[in-house]
Amino acid sequence: MADVTGAGAGPGTDAPIRVLLADDDALVRAGLAMILGGSSTIDVVGEASDGQEAVRRVRAGGIDLVLMDIRMPVMDGIAATAALVALPDAPKVIVLTTFDADEYVVRALAAGANGFLLKDTPPADIVDAVARVVAGEPMLSPAITEQLIRQVTDAVPDVRAGQALERVACLTDREREVAVAIGRGASNAEIAVSLHMSVATVKAHISHLFTKLGATNRVQVAIAMHEAGLL
């Protein structure tokens, strides 16, 4: 239910996904470890009780994805996410939350999180979400995307519109079409059909978009297009 990336990185096809659990509640970590440990494709390789510990553990290497609680002591999940996505070999980050599309979720996605999961998400869906995020498959529904964009852009000064236009100006016509489709919540497969290209080509365009717009997830691309007045 919550990825916003387009082209995925991660372990090899036969290697298990190495996951770090970051939550200040030991019971939550234990529950997640039990859920994820039941999958042969996922390996829970560590736990952290606060954001600072999570960043330190990721810096040590060997982490493909972090399940990150938003509200934690010492360093919260938003600050930790921002620190992680700035790393050269950044892991994917899924933030855990109690309420969808609240202010903290918006801030986490703006900081570069790849998606979010509600803490009451069914176990099978959590396992599926981890696999899909690492594979780079989008998971945010159009309705949630629109809600998140609205919450971010409604509180943004007008000067951001001009800055967004400057960033968008460097895009090719095709890249702009893909970016608009992302802003409307379309999946890679839907973009491929509507723009008559292969999914592999869509992923290549999205990779270029991330680089040119300085984005780390699909929501950031959508926000840029919205601020530029193209949505």
Characterise the protein shown here.
By secondary structure, this protein is of the alpha/beta class. It folds into two domains: about 15-140, Response regulator (Rossmann fold), CATH 3.40.50; about 145-225, Response regulator (Rossmann fold, 3-Layer(aba) Sandwich). The chain has eleven helices and five strands. Strands 2-1-3-4-5 form a five-stranded parallel sheet, with helices on both faces. Strand 1, helix 1 (about 25-35) and strand 2 (about 40-50) form a beta-alpha-beta unit. Helix 6 (about 140-155) crosses helix 11 and helix 9 (about 190-195) packs across helix 10 (about 200-215). The longest helix is centred in the last third of the chain and has 15 residues, at about 200-215. It is globular. The model is unreliable at about 1-10 (pLDDT under 50).
In short:
The protein is of the alpha/beta class and 231 residues long.
Name a few traits of the molecule.
single chain, 231 residues, alpha/beta, Rossmann fold, 2 domains, five-stranded parallel sheet, 5 strands, 51% helix, globular, disordered N terminus
Low-confidence stretches: 1-10
CATH fold naming of the largest domain: Rossmann fold
Structural class: alpha/beta
Task: Estimate nothing, just give the exact number of structural domains.
Answer: 2
Q: How do the strands line up in the largest sheet?
A: 2-1-3-4-5
Name of the CATH superfamily of the largest domain? Response regulator
Q: Output the CATH class name of the largest domain.
A: Alpha Beta
How helix-rich are the residues, as a percent range? 40-55%
Q: State the end-to-end CA separation.
A: 23 Å
Compute the number of strand runs: 5
> Which outline best applies?
globular
What is the number of helical segments per DSSP (H or I, 4+ residues)?
11
Strand content: 5-15%
> What is the CATH architecture descriptor of the largest domain?
3-Layer(aba) Sandwich
Provide the residue-averaged pLDDT: 83
